[in-house]
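INPUT
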Amino acid sequence: MDRETIVKQINDFLIEELEIEPDLIKEDARLKEDLHIDSLDFIDIAVIVERQFKIKIQPTEMKDVKLLSQFYDYVYNKLK
Amino acid sequence: MRRVVITGMGICSCLGKNLEEVKQSLYVGKSGIGIDEARIAYGYRSPLTGIVERPMLKGLLDRRSRVCLPEQGEYAYMATAEALKNAAVDMDYLDKNEVGILYGNDSTAKPAIEAHMLTLETKDTTLQGSGAIFQSMNSTVTMNLSTIFKLKGINMTISAACASSSHAIGLGLMFIREGLQDMIICGGAQEVNYLSMSSFDAISAFSTRVDNPTSASRPFDRFRDGLVPSGGAATVILEEYEHAVKRGAPIIAEVVGYGFSSNGANISQPSDVGSEIAMQRALNDAGITPENVDYVNAHATSTLQGDAFEAMALDRLFGNCKPPISSTKSMTGHECWMAGASEVVYSNLMMLHSFIAPNINFEEPDEYSRNLNIVKKTMDKKIDCYLSNSFGFGGTNSALVVKKWL
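OUTPUT
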C-alpha cells in the first residue's frame, strides 16, 4: 500500500471515528497537543489500525511517535 | 434538622423521554410494554419487556464521553440533564460548587458479555477498545456522570438489587441532613437488552402473556403470572432547603422520611415483616402516621409472592385508613435498579398535577389485595404526602416518604 493511500485512510478514521476537525489534520500536527489524542484514544486508534491494516501496534514502538507524519510513517513501514 | 428538598427531576423510560411525555402516559394509563424479538432468538422463555428508545447523544456529548457510556448510562445522562435543567443548575454552577452523585445500578451485563465474546473470537484483548472497561464496571453510571458533569462531591454507585435507587435517594437525604453535602444528584439506571435479563428469565420470573403484552404486568391482580422487565433512568436533584432558597431554585417536594430493613432470610422471597419495618421506619423518620399518607406507590412487581407479601404488610400498616394504592409497574414493568428513583419521579408528577395513576390490569383481587384500596382508573386527587416502596433480592427493603412543597 502506498503512503498516500495510508494517509487518506488514517485521515478518514481520524475525522469519522475520532471526530477530529479536518482543518487540524496536517502532517506536522502534534498528536497530543494539536489533535488532543490522549492515551485512551490511542487504544481506539490501535483497534482501528489492527482491523483496517491487519497490523498490530506495539505500545513500545509508539513512544517516539509524536507527530501525525510519524504515525503515517509508522503504519507505512509496518506494512512494507 | 436540615431539610432536604427536590429541586429538579428527569426521566427516560418506556413511558416517555421526558417529564411531559411521562406525565401524559401516567395520566392515561398507557403501558410501555412490548416484545423484543432478540429475546426469542436468544432462547428466552418470555420476550416481554419495556420498550425504551435509545437517545441520540452525538451532538450532545463528545466522543470520549459517548465511548465510555453503556446503554443505561445514556438514559442516565438524559434524565440527569433534564433534572439539572429543571433545577436551574448549569455547567458553570457545577464547576464552581461541590455537587455529589449517588446513583443506583446493579448490572452492566451487555458491555461485559460483548467484550468477552469479542476476545473469545479474536484472542486479542486490545480489540475491546478503550470504552469497555468504563462501560462494564458496576459503578459505570456514577463514574461517567461525575466526569461529564464535573462533579466534585460524594461519588458512588449504590447496588441493592431492585431497591438500589430508592436507597440512593435515602442515603442522599442522610448525607444532606448530616450537613456533609448541600446538593446531590440521586437516581437509578437500568439496562434494557437481551443480554442483561436472561438470568431472570432462567428462574421463570417473567410473565408469559405474550399474546397481549400490555396486559402482562398486572400487580395485585389474582391472575398475575410474573413481572415484565423494563428500564431506563430517573434522576432527582436533592438539595438542602436553605441552599435551594438562597439560589432561587424551584422546589418540587420535600423528602421527609427514609426507612430501610433487611429480611435476613430467603434470597429471592420477600417478607411482609421486613417491608413493614422499612415502611414504619420511614413514617417514623417523617414524623407522621399512616393517616397522613395520601397515596402509596407500591413496589408490587406482578409476581405471585412479592405482591402478596407487600399487600399483607400494607394491610397491617394502612388497614385503618386505606389510602389509594397503585403500582406504576403495571404500566412500566419492573424497572429494577431504576425503579426506586423512577417511582419517586412518577409520584412527584402525580403530586404536582393532583392525580393518581392507575394500577392498570387490576381486574380481580386475590385474598391479600382485596383488603387494599387499589386504584383501577386514574383518580383526580390532591396528594400532599406519599410513600414509595422498593424491595430487592437478598431481602433489602427501602421506603421513602415525600411531601408536597406548599
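end of record. The longest strand of chain B covers residues 253-262.
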